[in-house]
Amino acid sequence: MKAFQYLNPKTLPEALAAMALPGSVAYGGGTNLLDLMKTGAATPDGLVDLTGVQALQSITLDDAGNLRIGAAVRNATLARAPLLRAHAPMVAEALLSGASAQIRNMATVAGNVLQETRCPYFANPDAACARRDGGQGCDARVHAGREHAVIGWSEACRAVHPSDMCVPLVALDAKVELSGPEGVRLVALSDFLTLPEETPNRRNLLGSGEIITALVIPAAATALAGQSRYLKVRERTSFAFALVSAAAAVQIAGGKVIRARLALGGIAPKPWRVPEAEEAMVGRAATPETYRMAAEIALQGAAPSGDNGFKIELAKRTVARAFEWAAADVPGLGRDLPASVFDTIPEA
Amino acid sequence: MPDDFRKITPDADHGFSIAAPPRRFGTGGQSAARRDGLAKVTGAARYTADVSPAKALHGVIVSARIARGRVAAMNVAAAMAHPGVVEVMTPQNRPPLAQHPDEKRHPFNFRHEALQDDRVRYAGQAIAMVLGDSLEAATEGARLLAPVYEAEVPRIGFDAAEPWTPQMVGFFAPATHEIGNIAKGLADADVVSEITMDTPAQFHNAMEPHAIVAEWVQEDGRARLLLDTPNQGPVMTAGLLAGYLGIAAEDVVLRTPFIGGGFGSKLMIYGAMVLTALAARAQGRAVKTVLTRAQMYGPVGHRAGTRQKLTLGVARDGRLTALSHDVQALTSSFEDFVEPAGRASQHLYAAPNLAMSHIGLRGDIGTPLAMRAPGEASGSAALEVAMDVAADAVGLDPLEFRLRNYAEVDPSTGQAFSSKALRECYAQGAAAFGWAGRPLAARSMRDRRGRLLGWGMGTAQYLCTMYRGEARVILRGDGSAVAEVAGVDMGQGAWTILAQTAAEGLGISPEKVLLRSGSSVLPDGSVAGGSGHTATAGTALSEAGKDVVKQLTALALNDPKSPLFGAGNSGVLAVEGRLLRADNPAVGEAYVDIMARAGLRDLTGTGVGERAAENAEKYAMFSHGAVFAEVAIDPDLGQILVTRMVGAFAAGRILNPRMVQSQLEGGMIWGLSFALHEEAVFDPTSGKVLNDDLAGYHIPVHADIPAIQTMTVEEIDPFVNALGVKGVGEVGITGSVGAIANAIRHATGYTPTKFPIRIEDLPL
Amino acid sequence: MSGLEFVVNGAACGVALEDPRVTLLDLLRDRLGLTGAKKGCDRGQCGACTVLVNGARVNACLTLAVALQGAEVTTVEGLSEGGNLHPMQQAFLDHDALQCGFCTPGQILSAIGLMNEGESGDDVARVREGMSGNLCRCGAQPGIVAAVQEVLQAHSSGSR
Ligand SMILES: Cc1cc2nc3c(=O)[nH]c(=O)nc-3n(C[C@H](O)[C@H](O)[C@H](O)COP(=O)(O)OP(=O)(O)OC[C@H]3O[C@@H](n4cnc5c(N)ncnc54)[C@H](O)[C@@H]3O)c2cc1C
Ligand code: FES
Ligand code: FES
Question: Under an 8 A CB cutoff, do A102 and C125 touch?
């Protein structure tokens, strides 16, 4: 591992000053960055540890009912927070389905958003990877597999954004609060994470010297809290990234959908959301057919990037199941969190 | 805290003494708790990487990132310039070896890379070694070397590899075999069913990465190498390593008290071991090298990928008329190990016409070697699926079909089995599982959630390997004893069981036996592999104990002062530290008294553990079992959960039920892992294993592992060895892979053609 | 060079850290002689290095030592008091919840972390899920889960 300087600011201004030093990189729990430093894929000159910055630690509800989550809040802390469970329980579900209890105790929410793809070529500095090195090469072009994207990818990059947490966040219109030399700005999470297109190494809209200071889940999410679920499909029952996943929320009245939210994980370079799919559901009967229709729309344009075409149909089925599951949920109940996908079918 | 029991440290003679724990830390008796349990739950157990001699240098191996070609350049200057880097060893400056790493003087001299030249023959091979004052410095030095390669296109996978016909497969097994006439058997069949099955490369991935701490010391006026390293064959490895270093075998002291899992990967010499020893000699300092997890994907063996074809001829009455098993197995370009998968079908079912064949496929990968149940695991996985396909073809229940083809004698040799309680295993396992009433048709069971349910079974079978081992037992004047053998406990509970066998031979309670083990300086108990360790080292210890009893008996019978004087014709029994008259057990004398009168402070016996040649010739010897599994499958999403497993096993005499249960459960979990999780994926461009870690290479987690029930059917087997024990370490994986695959087949109607079985394979 | 002051197994501990690259795991193992926590992957993927930091289970291999100023660290060496094992250690012995033992310290610390989190009850599915960050290659899971369940049962009935 390359030698680096370690800085641990206590205040936001100190943090921004430290970030202004050349080669400085923000450091959260380190569960992703330190790992990549060990493989040699990341070689920062300085780490700015943000977990000591008091201003980044709180979870609060503002007057307008928006939930603001400090960037350095740990994934486990957030998953257990009563405010989150009431406001957006599927985010808690997504968090608890990710990684291991140990990693969730360490990882921060900003780090979760900015975690790198698990494409094996990215972590290996000897492999060609345009996403990592900004060059033209991509070894996944020759060999893309189950962990690669089936939608939103480009010839330049087939990588998947691996986060679970971000999937329901995108479905719920969450925003990222950024602070930097230019001041503070708020960007929709779905815009903040970018598609690879021609320049895959530009993976997000983070500016130079900028840090994430908070995530904001808009007040509107509350209305969907009772009928929303995060469903993660994978072969290893736990401690595995999603093969595909879906965050689905559906408000139903008189048997008809009045509002729906949907995002998918595991299939695209960023959490995949297609507003048209949600809109098409409105006014239709809350039935498996409607959910399937939404899934078809959401996956329009999907194409295998390698030996992974099965993920397209699997994603559609996951969407349908997630909606059925969300629809069946008793609104308003603080629920237990499932250990596996199997709990998604109710017992007869 | 009773420190003596917690800490297990080397004594001056480089052995390790392991006592029975005090009762409150573990039960005694036949089901005795592990002797090393306390050390392990308190963190006091010292594995190699935990050993840090003063001033030790840290060695870091630099691994090739290409699979074929040569290293054109390395930036040695940059690495040397990094603070804390002490030396960079490359083919240019590596000190000489007395034996070339590719020279085979002994079948277990596996060819390896110890910087003999600049060639790269697989990704992950050693191409340099960096020594540093700290691990951080050496690691960064290794990164700064930034090797430049001249790469050639690697030969990766079944299609690119080059076929070759081996004479031998596995360890000295014939590559082909045929009895009867397969063509005729198939012609006689009413139904012929054929399957093909691909199994992937799998890596042992013991939780403990390979580690070596080497230090040269002056002892008795000569240089000796003290080598701490987890190793499954300490005496053999010490001897072989000495060859490369040009020193006498006894000048390598290999200490291996704790082994964090081996599974076959810690049986061999590999480059890092030789280089660490060399570096320590050259530097005059201890050197510690610990492989990274990624470095375990190449130089330390793996289970070869195979492509198998099974052809079964079946008569309408459900009897096999022919069974042929043809195997292609991937191997390296420079070594000859071929996965003996075909062996799995040669001794199990009574097919009158029976054959196997093997083809090796050479590619640019590390040499595959033995991995838990080598041959049998992959072979059984395919065979058991083929059996279910054939059973279906004649409309029979899978268990009934297997019973109709029950082999009363070894089908490939005609030998009688030394013992075989497989029928009882089938019956007891089926009853415990509730197999009766299983519907024949696939997709006919659902659970209350509407998930597809399937039940499957498989037969387990594994060889009863035995080597030649030696041991020593020393009875002390106070009635306690020391049992000495270079035994290997990598989690099987060997230390616990070996002490029990010594105690049994000696006729004292195991708590009175102190085991000295874990070091090459002790009598060679042979290797821990092929499930033959307890049989070999245990028999040797038991014989050594009996040797002591024989000496005691001679003393007593000839001593007029002994109550046993003259009891020669009626014989004596050795019970609880006393010799008793066989015809009148009320008359006897304690060992301590016999020794005291003879003025003996201790009495040493020796023993050899070895199979009697006449039994080996006459009998077929196997452990057997029957494994039953249930799976539940989401009908839309295809996620597979194994919901329960039952295994009934017959493995001769069960010495310690507690340890045996743990071995059998572990084996069955390996079966689950094989069926559903493990797969190394090779990058066709670089030839590197893409998922060379534990996040991408999946082994099951707690959440994947269901309730597992194991049971044993005791066999009395006077032929297998004097103790009557067969191995239990590997039999559990055989049968289990097939049981799960067949359960999936029953749930979905899909006949697997490859492992692991994935969501996308299922017809949903 | 920075001085790191923290508490290890209840005792204050000061170390001069000349290199910020040192992980908590390497610090414990190489510099403090506490080799109970094991390095199975060094990448957060196996759980063998699990220790408690301020009562919460973490992977010591992905924790920079410099980041631990003032923290309280508990390793397996700090679990037994006087002559007594921690109930989790005793349960691991009683249920034969180990084979090679390499994953064992991590499993035990993780189980204590799970107990501290207080969410799983003794429900077996939740125990399995909650322990899934700790791999065991030997296949000792049945014993491990039984041991953890037993301690959680006693713990929850004790606190009821
Ligand atoms: C074995 C393993 C399994 C995992 N499994 C899953 C899984 O199943 N699902 C899942 O979703 N995730 C999984 N993860 C990923 C895990 O969620 C991330 O590693 C974690 O969320 C990253 O958070 P961190 O605080 O540790 O980030 P760090 O590693 O500290 O940082 C990650 C990135 O974020 C940047 N960063 C951090 N904070 C800020 C900030 N405030 N402002 C700007 N930039 C910042 C860093 O510079 C870095 O680029 C797994 C990780 C591991 C190691
Ligand atoms: S060593 Fe830390 S998780 Fe594996
Ligand atoms: S006991 Fe060996 S890895 Fe768990």
Answer: no
